[in-house]
Amino acid sequence: MINFLDIKHQYDELRDSLDAAAKAVFCDGLYIGGDYLSEFEKNFASYVGADHCFGVGNGLDTLSLLVGAADLPVRSKVIIPNNTFIATALAVFNEGLTVINKNWGNRGCRKLEGDNAD
Question: Is 94 in contact with 62 (CB distance < 8 Å)?
Answer without folding.
Answer: no
